[in-house]
């Protein structure tokens, strides 16, 4: 199913997107050395419920997972990159943490992910990896405009990842989003320009470049959910929900601007 949202629905999507972004930024500011992943899940639960929203993950039970997921947010550390199931783990200095969140508010979903380093350590390989996924996301957003094709977005993302030397996995990528979290069209993180679905105003997409340092192969944890790099290398993931407009793409998952003192 591909949904085209009307102006009223897009207005609600902006509110949902800002909520997702604000929660992620709160996690980023609070998570430190010694923070437990289950503690992060509790923080997120409290913020979602306080906003009158619903996590897309608690009852999430796709064919590839061992569901239902049962938690409010995905937390992936170091060599874990996707669908990280929160568990009893205390973050250490230099850990690379990815937090991925999707919620529904007033009937419209938004989805976003951030990767960041915990504590004071700044391993150069991890910094470069995170920055590359962020640049790939920027390139994908720049390519998302009315009349462009899904392949144009995929090509833009894949070019950045490939030029940085990272292998690209095409099993999981971006996707359409609207009244539900996962919709068509699928947006691979590499592809050929000029191919695929034609973008039109009102379409919402969750674009999500992710990369692993030296492999394109994933393995699944015994928990049935957490996906890790097959070699144990580090990973990173950056994601925004965007809406196609008459002029290009509007990023919906932007946090509330700080108020002036």
UniProtKB/TrEMBL annotation:
Cofactor note: Binds 2 divalent metal cations per subunit. Has a high-affinity and a low affinity metal-binding site. The true nature of the physiological cofactor is under debate. The enzyme is active with cobalt, zinc, manganese or divalent iron ions. Most likely, methionine aminopeptidases function as mononuclear Fe(2+)-metalloproteases under physiological conditions, and the catalytically relevant metal-binding site has been assigned to the histidine-containing high-affinity site.
Top-level EC class: hydrolase
UniProt keywords, alphabetically: Aminopeptidase, Hydrolase, Metal-binding, Protease
Catalyzed chemical reaction(s): Release of N-terminal amino acids, preferentially methionine, from peptides and arylamides
Pfam families, alphabetized: Peptidase_M24
Cofactor(s) essential for the protein: Co(2+); Zn(2+); Mn(2+); Fe(2+)
Keyword set includes DNA-binding: no
UniProt: substrate binding residues: 83, 182
Subunit structure: Monomer.
Function: Removes the N-terminal methionine from nascent proteins. The N-terminal methionine is often cleaved when the second residue in the primary sequence is small and uncharged (Met-Ala-, Cys, Gly, Pro, Ser, Thr, or Val). Requires deformylation of the N(alpha)-formylated initiator methionine before it can be hydrolyzed.
Official protein name in the record: Methionine aminopeptidase
Upper taxonomic lineage: Bacteria, Bacillati, Actinomycetota, Actinomycetes, Micrococcales
Gene coding for it: map_3
